[in-house]
């Protein structure tokens, strides 16, 4: 082994550049693969653990008790595919206020209340984190996911029901699929005297996909009288919602990881085959002095293994560092400790990469083990190949191209195998560029939508439905003053009022964000994914809403509040990240909740050339301080982090691809150092040498770049919907169509740029090589 | 021949590869006239090939000046040295140094193409040289298929394609059998007789005696004597 160590040291010392290339490519691959796998596992783990422990409801079905008597509901337990059922539980959506210390005036616009005699059962086993389950009327257990810290002993007053009863919080619990906001004993539901629906909770034999869950729900629906089912909810929707803070990261990380993995294999193969080819004499000498074929193979495998181990170890560390800000966001989802990449992922992913690199090295290095010692020493180098002579001959007659360029162009044909590996390395690097640029542009556009850069928004002070603060005019006067001030501004092109409310949607638990515009809002430019902007009696909804309700464009939806309701038709799906949202005209819904739907925000489109801050200053001067709020756009922090990561990974893969080229050109110039000496002896200038060497990989790079553009676009178009799906949103065409013709032309040159960048250093080395010395080289 | 008439003028030229070690060439001063044929002779490691490399612009002297025609080689940049090699010198090597992946024609044409000679003119010069070297039939052959003598003829043709005033030959017959060596020697003699200046490195005193007019002896990097070729042995 000592002899192997000595020979290995010599081999590594002579191939520092190749060792660096291997280390870097495996670092990049290990970092992306470990991070991707870690996020993939962690995105669902907390929810899945809680769901299994609590026998979570795989489907929640809201039924009309007038149409589905108890015996029909009980019969659904025998429907094929149903494995467990709980219910019926009386259910009502009411208003509520709570007195919480340090949080005055807590108002729940729509509070889904369910009547259950116990927290347990075969489905939706509610876990109490404090207090106890209600045992009598006047008591209530609340969900820990309300967003307001309610503790046992505090009071909740139900509004919009006869007598507005006040209940005492006796427990705080958690339903893993959020089947209700609070629970009371069934007798309390009866005492409310308000219209109620009934909730049935099911578990099915097959629930792995939306289709399977929907099939189960359809079977239940079919077993009940027509029209009895008012709404349904799937556990997958909740699971997706819980995972959506992490899940969008996974698809592009997987894409980058796969590119990195393939690059790793290519570069390992290239480095080892190059080392074997260039070290033929050394191999011959090693064998002649007594090294066995296995020892020779071991030396070459270890030459890869040592930098590879360092690379994957550093990659795993980097993955864990990158995971901290990403996984930290999930810590609060299930009140669990901060998540980190599981240890087994930290071990398995780097190890898998090492094994892969080791196998690639072993396969190539076994050729070195088989080499005849005599032949290796005699030839001093790998047998001279006779590939590409015909190409040399043809290109030698090419008119209009300098001779060094035609010699360079013929170069790739001398070693077609190495050229293909180099082409693949550049191709992957260039694909990463096209994909990364496209993804970054798509994220920019998503960010622009979040930031609402097309217009300004001004809000009235105070909250809808609340009395104005002392000294402030009544809401009607505030609205009139704001409208007059906006109309008076010469920079105003158009404006529309906006009211936001939380309303119940039949078939969904909790409330849904409803935005109601007081006028034509089509100019605000919300991007449509499908369908059209709403007209009279219509509404547009985002993807999260469609996912949560199972509705489609064209379906009706019913919004209600305190017993008042409005049914609208979904005319289109608009692009908006985040929770389920409905947008409609104020006239369609204001009757449901007149005070809550008072205009609160004024959306202003500016005339071309008007500077936003100037407009705001002018409005401020007209209205005076304290009479309006500039609406702060949504946060794009997550998008910025993803965009930054995309940039880093793209650069990393480009550098790795460039190192792949560098490695190829170093091998080539070392093998052809004597020929380069001859070229220089007969008058090839340093610039001509550089041109010749760079051209050797330049054409390969250009071809790779041309192939990479459609491949990168295809990858972008394949990954983006997966990311959108993970974030519970579709994307409008503008998010997909991000490549302008000029950008495409530049991206097509990415392969050439990678090739030239990778080749320049060894080309310069070749140009500087002393001619007399090169002529003496073997 | 005065120094001013000489095509090649070396003045106090020293080449030292490593500090503290003996120079490969030490304080060499010599001239080679236009149309002259000179043999540099000496034992292995005497510095004769180094001296040839310096005259060819393949290497740079540590001190001293080398002039070929009007060109002082020490002042040339790498690009300038490459241009000098294209136009002013043709070099013939012991092991031919032909490019295996190029045909005979492409090997010969290469210096002309690097020098930007118009294609038509280069082709006619190629035809002329292949005929003169009697290797026309090998025009499209690759060097690996040629005999040693044929390869050296190709190398000579390549060296002459740009009509350089100076032809340098480093052991041109060192890799050939005696019959072929004679052929190559005759060829070089013919070239010199037609006015081509020739500097030849050899350790073969018979070759020097038969084919060059003057012999310069080098030992340990220094010129020991310069004598007419007939008295070299």
Written description of the protein model:
The complex is a heterodimer of chains A (778) and B (233). Chain A has 778 residues and is of the alpha+beta class. Chain A has four domains: 1-58 and 238-383, no CATH class; 65-227, no CATH class; 387-452 and 635-778, no CATH class; 456-630, no CATH class. Chain A contains 25 helices and 20 strands. Chain A has a six-stranded mixed barrel. In chain A, strands 12-13-18-15-17-16 form a six-stranded mixed β-barrel. In chain A, helix 7 (249-278) packs antiparallel against helix 14 and helix 19 (637-671) runs parallel beside helix 24. The longest helix of chain A has 41 residues, at 686-726. Chain A is elongated, with a radius of gyration of 34 Å. The two termini of chain A are 30 Å apart. By secondary structure, chain B is of the alpha/beta class. Chain B has two domains: 1-88 and 164-233, P-loop containing nucleotide triphosphate hydrolases (Rossmann fold, 3-Layer(aba) Sandwich), CATH 3.40.50; 98-163, no CATH class. Chain B is built from seven helices and ten strands. Chain B has helices at 48-56, 78-87, 104-114, 119-132, 148-160, 178-193, 205-211; strands at residues 6-15, 25-33, 37-41, 63-68, 71-72, 89-92, 166-170, 197-202, 214-219, 222-228. In chain B, the strands form two sheets. Chain B has a six-stranded mixed β-sheet, sandwiched between helices. The longest helix of chain B is centred in the C-terminal third of the chain and has 16 residues, at 178-193. Chain B is globular and about 50 Å long. The mean pLDDT of chain B is 89. The interface between A and B is medium-sized, with 32 and 33 residues.
